[in-house]
Write a structure and sequence with these properties.
The protein has a 5-stranded parallel sheet, with helices on both faces. A two-stranded antiparallel sheet has the order 3-4. A two-stranded antiparallel ribbon has the order 8-9. Helix 17 (369-384) packs antiparallel against helix 18. Strand 8 and strand 9 (862-863) form a beta hairpin. It is mostly helical.
């Protein structure tokens, strides 16, 4: 393909049609190619000339010279190219008005009879007005041979008529008349799929599906700008970052083509708009450029005419690369001064804090208090917007300002928390250097705590403990040392929990800390959180664990709030207070450490997913963790405990949804499928996730992983099955392999510990495992007890597993109607939770129970097909791995034909409500507002709100939208 045709196939075809029309109709045909500078008008005109010559046309191509004092200069050059040797010609007469240049015959187009002619005039704006008048007259004559006239004109954003030229103000406007009669052919920017071809042909640069859109974004598809951008990368395949870096440098070829013709005021205004960025107002730009508004408006018109600025307000460049060209021509000192003036100007005009901060970052050292405050506010706002790298730039700029020691410490710690998420090593270096340089005891303490938190989050708990011990030694026994030492010991205790198990022996027992720690303030809350997790691990006193957890909940948005929330709400979930934990999760998004771009945000989102998983909402849990998956995988591969826990949770959720291959990929990408894993607490969750993945294809390995998780937890002093029910999961695998004695031993031990802890979830889960080691009525009794307990808990998913086992067991004993009711409940619950493999398993049991002539399982009167699940699920074998994790294969049952379909069972969840709560819930489900309900029942609105909140807490739901599932048995 010819160079001029790349990305211009339609335009080239239209120009060829001009040739055909002139030949067919034997009349003048005029076309004008319109576009911005660099759009390829001249290249397209050359291609047209070549096509015309190949088609037998006599071609004359000239470019306007701008010499208005030389009448007919363009015409004379055209005729010079066309005059034949025999001097035969057809004359076209035209006389100039009296007093306007030479009169008489102006020109003649030499034409051989039947020899078509093509006249090509490039850059119409530079053609003298006499030649334009002559071309206009020529376009209205009837020549003896076909005639095609093609011109090019620059469009500057104000429309086709906005063509700067000497003839623009003449009375007859010959150029405007000619344009009005011409067929317009506009040249837009090259499309993304054409940019790769153009880059290869013009610049010998290879673009792919990622870099081509970047080129389009920076250049608007302008071929000349594309060539300027890619010139430094000739013969290579640049990355998107390399292209953006080239654009940001402003060192680009061809800038003179755009900037040289500008006047001094226009160039000053262009620089002001470039410094202010997109959306600059005229008044602000004028003030920054030190122009009056009138001067600025004239400069705006000139910049629009030069196609630098778009023809609109607020002011903005037509393409980002043009802005970079202007910025690149400003000297560094001048540019810094302009940014500083822009910051002060925008601050006085009460512009957005982030906008002012952008100019402060670009200006460098300001040396004023207001600049430091603005940069810190902007950093917090940018974090909220999910832009941690921009926030870090603001904080680094704030560190350049003159700060007092405590201010510098605070800024450095904020910066380290951001870097810990983007570049942990840089955060460690920053904090360690600052810690060693500081002399103030309070500053040393804060640096030590921040550095220890970063190291612990990175899986370097031993180093974190060393830092805390070193800080304790430096602080010594000075005045006021007691509270510092207590904080260090508390943080050491938390840090030891995240490290290898041998490290836990270095932490102070909670009893020692209790005698020395005040019960109020942040230190008291930290101690309460530590006591809560210790009680939860021991699993002996649920009431004490809940009490300590509530005392340790964060107050407000202080530093470390996300960590406190993680520990305390985790205890509440283990204690069965799921609704309360969910409420605190919602508040947790507002705490200081939970802003996007920090590990606090990861912890809060992981905590939300944990609560959702405890409620059996697999889709919502998956949706909460999936946006974090890339970051979790990257950090889990380097040993970050929180990331390991997050990947394990996401993998287990996807197994339960039937996406086993996806879960397997998560473990492989994060390195959690390799042995050995670090011998620390978070590895127990990774081992449990591995067991869930391998339960279907390698039960022996799954059992080995679960037993390893159990050994790890026992060494850590964790006896509570609510933390991780590894024994019941292992018992189910052992039962499936026929090792019922070993399974019964594990399940019985878990039942004992679960009863000691006392939550329905843990007892029901343990009884479920124990039931699988029994047969006949004993199994049914245990499953019935488990189902009753789980009906009182928010864990709908495990209740669905138990109901499925119960239905299959009842069917095996010939109790068809009871089996139907259990299977119907199991299917509803499985569908509501998103556990498609379990739903398909229940469907299979149902079909074998009802016989082949009775149709699929019905939910609320609607037939549910057992075809493939929604696209989010991955196709799995008929016995799903998710089901294999939580239940053993059923004993053989003889298919039998039960009686009529039983009536829909009422949800056991509703049995937990008082009559008044049940009545209010029914009205709420029907869509009545709180005020309507109060009027119907003759009670106060506050009474309705009180009963609703109590009912929601008992049901483990958060609002009215989930009432339909409750009343339908889900």
């Amino acid at each position: 393909m010819a160079l001029g045709e790349i990305g211009r196939r339609n335009e080239t075809a239209r120009l060829r049609a001009v040739l055909e029309r002139s030949r067919r109709d034997r009349c003048p045909v005029v076309a004008v190619v319109r576009g911005e500078p660099g759009a390829g008008k001249s290249t397209l005109l050359e291609a047209f000339g070549a096509d015309a010559s190949a088609a037998g046309f006599r071609v004359a191509v000239v470019r306007g010279t701008g010499a208005e004092d030389r009448p007919y200069s363009t015409v004379n050059r055209l005729i010079a190219q066309l005059r034949p040797d025999d001097r035969k010609s057809v004359e076209v007469r035209h006389r100039t008005p009296p007093g306007v240049g030479p009169g008489g015959l102006t020109a003649a187009v030499p034409m051989e009879r039947d020899a078509p002619v093509a006249l090509c005039v490039d850059d119409m704006a530079q053609v003298d007005s006499w030649s334009l008048r002559w071309l206009s007259e020529l376009s209205r004559t009837v020549p003896t041979a076909p005639l095609a006239i093609v011109l090019t004109v620059r469009i500057c954003g104000a429309g086709a008529e906005a063509v700067s030229s000497p003839w623009h103000g003449t009375p007859d406007k010959p150029g405007a008349v000619l344009l009005a009669a011409a067929e317009p052919i506009d040249l837009p920017g090259l499309l993304t799929h054409d940019l790769s071809e153009a880059a290869a042909a013009r610049c010998r640069v290879r673009l792919d599906t990622r870099t081509a859109p970047v080129c389009g974004e920076l250049t608007g598809g302008n071929p000349a700008l594309l060539q300027a951008l890619l010139a430094p990368h000739a013969g290579s395949a640049p990355t998107a970052d390399a292209l953006r870096a080239t654009a940001a440098s402003g060192v680009l070829a061809g800038a003179d083509r755009w900037l040289a013709p500008l006047s001094t005021p226009a160039l000053a205004l262009a620089q002001a708009v470039a410094v202010l960025g997109g959306g600059a107002e005229v008044v602000e730009s004028a003030e920054l450029a030190r122009l009056t508004v009138e001067e600025a408006l004239g400069a705006v018109d000139q910049l629009v005419d030069a196609c630098l600025l778009a023809n609109r307000t607020p002011l903005a460049f037509r393409h980002p690369l043009l802005e970079s060209m202007v910025l690149g021509r400003i000297a560094a000192g001048t540019r810094a001064a302009l940014h500083l003036r822009a910051a002060a100007l925008l601050r006085d005009r009460q512009a957005a804090t982030t906008t002012v901060a952008h100019h402060l970052v670009a200006a460098g050292l300001v040396g004023q208090e207001w600049a430091m405050r603005c940069l810190r506010r902007a950093a917090r706002q940018l974090e909220q917007e999910g832009r941690p790298q921009d926030a870090a730039r603001c904080l680094r700029a704030a560190l350049r300002e003159p700060l007092r020691p405590h201010q510098k410490s605070a800024v450095r710690r904020e910066l380290a928390e951001l870097d810990a998420f983007v570049d942990p090593e840089r955060a460690v270096r920053l904090l360690d250097t600052a810690r060693c340089e500081s002399q103030d005891p309070g500053v040393v303490l804060e640096y030590a705590l921040a550095l220890a938190a970063v190291l612990a989050e990175c899986g370097r708990a031993e180093e974190a403990v060393t830092v805390l011990d070193d800080a304790a030694a430096r602080l010594g026994r000075a005045s006021g040392d007691g509270s510092w030492q207590l904080r260090l010991r508390l943080h050491k205790a938390f840090t030891c929990r995240r490290g290898p198990l041998w490290l836990a022996q270095a932490a102070d027992p909670p009893g020692n800390l209790t005698r020395r720690t005040p019960q109020r303030g942040s230190v008291g809350r930290e101690l309460a959180a530590l006591c809560a997790v210790q009680e939860a691990d021991a699993g002996a006193d649920r009431g004490a664990a809940v009490r300590h957890a509530r005392q340790g909940l964060p107050r407000g948005a202080g530093r470390g709030s996300a960590t406190l929330l993680w520990h305390t709400c985790g205890v509440l979930v283990a204690a069965g207070e799921v609704a309360e934990a969910w409420t605190h999760c919602g508040r947790g998004r507002q705490v200081a450490g939970a802003r996007p771009g920090r590990w606090g945000h990861i912890k809060v989102e992981l905590l939300r997913a944990t609560v959702l998983r405890a409620r059996g909402d697999l889709h919502a849990a998956d949706a909460a963790l999936t946006p974090l998956a890339d970051r979790l995988l990257a950090f889990a591969a380097t040993g970050h405990p929180s990331a390991v826990t997050g990947v394990a949770a996401l993998a287990e959720v996807r197994v339960l949804k039937g996406m086993t291959e996806s879960a397997r990929s998560l473990l492989a990408e994060s390195g959690l499928d390799r042995d050995p894993l670090p011998w620390r607490r978070d590895s127990a969750y990774a081992l449990a996730a591995r067991a869930a993945v391998h339960a279907s294809d390698d039960p022996a390995r799954a059992l080995e992983d679960l037993l390893a998780a159990g050994r790890l937890l026992e060494e850590a002093g964790v006896r509570n099955p609510a933390v991780l029910p590894w024994r019941s999961r292992a018992a189910r695998l052992l039962s499936a392999r026929g090792k019922r004695e070993e399974a019964a031993e594990l399940a019985g031990a878990e039942v004992h510990d679960a009863r000691r802890w006392g939550t329905p979830e843990s007892i029901g889960t343990a009884l479920h495992a124990l039931a699988l080691t029994e047969n006949g009525e004993r199994r049914i009794d245990l499953l019935t007890d488990a189902a009753g307990l789980l009906a009182r808990s928010p864990d709908r998913l495990h209740r669905a597993f138990v109901q499925a086992e119960l239905g299959a067991g009842l069917a095996g004993l010939g109790r068809g109607e009871a089996a139907c009711a259990a299977l119907l409940s199991a299917c509803r619950l499985a569908r509501a939770c998103g556990a498609e493999p379990l739903a398909r398993h229940v469907q299979g049991v149902w079909e074998s129970l009802r016989g082949t002539d009775r149709g699929p399982l019905e939910l609320s009167g609607t037939a549910m097909s057992t075809a493939a699940p929604d696209p989010a699920s991955v196709r799995e074998p008929s016995v799903s791995p998710a089901y294999a994790v939580h239940a053993s294969p059923q004993p053989d049952a003889q298919p039998r034909q039960p009686g009529p379909q039983p009536p829909q069972p009422a949800s056991p969840l509703l049995d937990r409500l008082t009559p008044q709560e049940r009545k209010i819930l029914h009205l709420a489900k029907e869509g009545h507002s709180n005020r309507d309900i109060a009027g119907r029942l003759f009670v106060a609105v506050r009474t309705v709100e009180f009963h609703l909140s109590g009912a929601y807490r008992k049901l483990g739901i958060t609002g009215r939208r989930q009432l339909a599932q409750v009343f339908s048995g889900g």
